[in-house]
Design goal:
mainly alpha, 84% helix, 0% strand, elongated
Length: 355
């Protein structure tokens, strides 16, 4: 303050404080106005960065028509979302509501062991007895704990409502991303200029790193997880598995946090062998095993350089993004946090190298 008083007179200091206050008020007010649209704008930017290589390829094939390429890519994306993904999402919401209703009323029941398990060689009788014991004990425990689980039912219903709002936000994000595609070079130049003012020496490197991380996480983690859960949900529906949409949503969560969908697929495979004939069970088992191993094949092809972000960072991004922005934060959270992690790690490496 003493140095500031030496450089500026008293009136100059007052004017500077007023200007800074007005600037802070303007920034706060602007953020307050655009706050409801932050998830949509963020997801739109992620989609634009993730699909920009595909947009460039389509635009070149159409003879340099960016607007037509953006329209085609937007329609294709909407067709994928409105079709199978929306169907799977509606099934998941219905499954969550049914489960919440059963928990709230205390009518949650488990399936007893099928009689045909007894005929299985070696492990059949033991598995049948173990299943029946678990069925009896767990059912009694759930009946006693039903009154204490009613708050959980309310949370599940609230989450189901957020899922519908998140689906609408995602559809709007796809439309906004379609408008962003033709202006990609101008937007990149604006971001480059902004980064140059913050980190002049490393602005280009950080811009490339951020784009590569967004594409790696959105395609290699989120995209593969959506594909796995979608195929698993289709298999669940074809097999007649109860609460197929809800199980597919759980498989989506497990895939995003890098655990994998096998925690859901293995119980379903066991159920299929108890409820279906041998041929059907064998075909569905082969299909689910292929779905479970799909990420091991696609991730190296899609991610290229590989993802160095720790699994814990992605998990925190999933949980924090969902708490902050609802169902759409489930996808935005790990992407934003991964970008921040990669940029911070690169900054630390540069500082160490300089030192």
């Amino acid at each position: 303050m003493r140095t500031l008083r030496q450089l500026l007179p008293a009136e100059g200091i007052i004017q500077l404080v007023i200007r800074l206050g007005l600037l802070a008020l303007l920034i706060f007010w602007t953020f307050l106005i655009i706050q409801p649209f932050v998830p949509i704008l963020t997801w739109s930017a992620v989609l634009a960065v993730a699909f920009y290589p595909a947009f460039s390829w389509v635009a070149k094939r159409l003879g340099g028509r960016p607007r037509l390429a953006a329209a085609i890519l937007t329609l294709v994306t909407l067709g994928i979302i409105i079709g199978p993904v929306a169907w799977l999402g509606v099934s998941a919401v219905e499954g969550i509501r049914d489960l919440a209703s059963q928990i709230g009323t205390g009518d949650l029941v488990l399936q007893a062991a099928p009689e045909r398990i007894k005929d299985w060689p070696v492990i059949g009788p033991q598995l049948y007895d173990l299943w029946n014991q678990a069925y009896t004990n767990v059912r009694a425990i759930l009946r006693e704990a039903a009154p204490y689980l009613k708050p959980l039912a309310g949370m599940m219903l609230s989450f189901a409502g957020d899922a519908g709002l998140g689906t609408l936000q995602f559809l709007l994000s796809v439309f906004v991303a379609g408008f962003l595609f033709p202006y990609g070079p101008q937007l990149v130049a604006a971001v480059r200029s902004f980064l140059f003012r913050i980190v002049p020496e490393q602005s280009e490197h950080f811009l490339e790193l951020a784009g590569a991380t967004i594409r790696a996480v959105s395609q290699g983690v989120i995209g593969v997880a959506i594909l796995q859960s979608l195929l698993a949900g289709i298999g669940f529906k074809l097999a007649g598995v109860p609460s197929a949409g809800l199980l597919a949503f759980v498989a989506l969560l497990l895939s995003i946090v890098q655990i994998g969908p096998f925690l859901v697929l293995l119980p379903v495979i066991i159920w299929i062998w108890t409820a279906k004939d041998v041929t059907t069970a064998l075909l569905l088992t082969a299909f689910f095993i292929a779905v479970g191993l799909l990420d091991n094949i696609l991730k190296p092809l899609v991610m290229g350089r590989g993802l160095t972000t720790p699994t814990l960072v992605i998990l925190i991004g999933v949980i924090g993004g969902t708490l902050a922005h609802g169902i759409i934060g489930l996808f935005i959270g790990p992407i934003i946090l991964s970008v921040a992690w990669e940029l911070a790690a690169a900054w630390i490496r540069i500082e160490r190298a300089t030192a």
